[in-house]
Write a structure and sequence with these properties.
heterodimer, A: alpha+beta, Beta-Lactamase, 5-stranded antiparallel beta sheet, two-stranded antiparallel ribbon, B: mainly beta, Porin, 12-stranded antiparallel β-barrel, 6% helix
Chain lengths: 493, 247
Amino acid sequence: MIALLGLMLSAGLGQSQLPPLPPDLPSWIRAKGMDELYYKSAPYNWSINRIPKFARDMYATGVGHAMAYEAMSKGQVSALDTETFSKIDRVLRNPPKLPVDEMAISPTFVRKYGYLEKVFDWAHTLHFQTIDVLAYPGWSNARKEQELDELWSFYQSEPYALTGLPMNMEYLDGFSYSKRFRQQYPKLNGLFWGYHWLQTVNYDMLFGVPTANQAAQYEVLGERYHEVELYNETRDFMPMTAELSPRFAKRFPQLANAFDNLHMLHDNVNDILAQPGLTDLQREQQIQIAIYRVLDSTHRGESPGSGTPNTLHDHRHPPSMPGMGMMVGSEEDEMYMGGMGWMNMAECGHCSVPMPGEEPWGATVTANGWTMSVRCLMCARDMASETPGRAIIRASTEDPKQLLILVSDDEGNWTSNLATVVFLEKFGEHPDCSGWSRAFTSTAALNSYLVANPEYAGMPGLSLADWSKLNQGKPDTYRRIDRPNPYRKDGEE
Amino acid sequence: MKLPFALAIWFTASLCLAQSDHNNLDKERPLTFEDAYSIAYRSYELQTGFSAFAFQKRQPQYGLRTEIQYGIAKNRDLSIGWDPVFDSQAARLRGNNLELSYFEGLTREIGNSPAVGYRIEAELPTTGSVRDADVRARLVLTKRAKTYDKLHLNLGVAGNGKLAFGAILGYSLPLGYPRQFDTTLLAELAVEQSRQASGQNHWAGVGIRRQVDVTTVLDYSIRMRFKSAVTENRNALIFTVGLSKSF
């Protein structure tokens, strides 16, 4: 009886705090048509299938979304972490070979919230076409970058488009119903955040990477996805695109922000559908409001970097990362990152020295579920060696068109996509490490660099095997940001 | 009769290996009914299908239907189709009419209300004779039946002067859920007023739509015309195999 009273009180409290419908709710939300849209016609469509394991896992995420929404729409919330989880997990372990029509397997959801499905479907199309562009072997990197800009314009031409502006994530996740889903259904929420991990980690796997070198990275990422990320119940917040694909997010901030805003909309909807005590009408209205908050039309005329803190129109972003809104507790470039603690995005994740402002941009390390930007190859290698499990290093070379991709096994043995790669490493002061720790596509390229930079004259080029054996340890410049976890009241890590 | 039976055996065998199908149902692919949804805005779809008509009292006929659809706007598509038939008894190829068709989906399924759409078709004679021209209209309702299966009611009227009415009750059931997601079983029961003689035509059919790759759907069906106003068409079996490709 007391429990029932408590439930009623909490439900009543929640309802009284529910935000009202905005007066300028777009009319398309009430349109009755199915409004199905075809993707942009282009030669790259379905290039995702060039990486079959990745494609199948991505197709399965659609099934996972749809099955969960169907169960929630039918009011089957008590079985979400049991029967629904098991049903979805079976599909994730045996992913479909072809994309699945999500509407066909979530009929109740679509009958109730067809307008929401339009938003999801259009944003998922953007997800897939972005991947297709990056996985397409027929175009140069420059042509692909141009196409992604065009794809973004194409996406924005529809009223269902989400905003590409950074949004304040603390605000978007701060309503009376917020966090309900992750707290009550941690297993199913883990799957959702696992899908969103996969949907955001993949962009740096593909961006600027020769298509022949993309699938090898998925061996590492796919393993991590299936073994850890899908079943990770310890995350404090959903995965962010800039956390997992910082190179991509920096180059295409509007895309990165749209994907994060989409994933936050998923979280909002999950929370609303899982919230007890709401009437069907209240759920419908709250979902419409959640859509409204992240629509492009709601923020038209506004610009990134502006806005009143912690409001709907807060479009500030970390100064060094335009592809991410402000996070819980974040200040300037400092943010709390799951699995890493507090990080400064303007600094090297390994030596804490500010990242170089000009090319080359250094490297990224993907390991243990996170991706960090580092200043140089030495920082990348040593950071990866400090982390258990397999790792991927993506590093610039002297040739902007040739990205070095290093993939390690569990023992830390590296393989390279560039057969003739040669390294320079003359250990010195960390603030200069992007000068003395670098990769070159050939010995000739190294020699040219040595001629242009006489301070390194006489340094031998290191083979991958010799370079791999080096380890300079934790840099003395490393500065740990000692602040409590902002997502936990007790501040525990 | 050998060809239709060979096709039937081949497709029955392929059905055992089938993994998939698609969900958006178009007229004649492979049964005569359709659902209340247009193709996607901006998409093109090429549909083609071979049909064999096996009769008890006359030699078979063979049809090769081809249609191109285009999603001209949200919930609206236009199509142009041609359905020539070879009559083996008369050893003659009938060009038949050129079909111009407009479809509009008025509403999706919302709550307990069905999805509703309509189609208007004009048949332009390839013979040049205005008497062969025809106009048809069809109202389409689609509603979820139990879980993933759907009922589709198609109510049609046709006529160039004299009107003829018809109704088709269609049923679609995705097969393999929740483990497989790409095959749909179809069935239909139809009745129409004959335009060739006094009386009605009745037929029933079953079919399969199977997704073979991201843009291609293979379909096959068998229909039986168990009542026909034209005596020699009675108990005809119609075997169809077709392909839809979006681009």
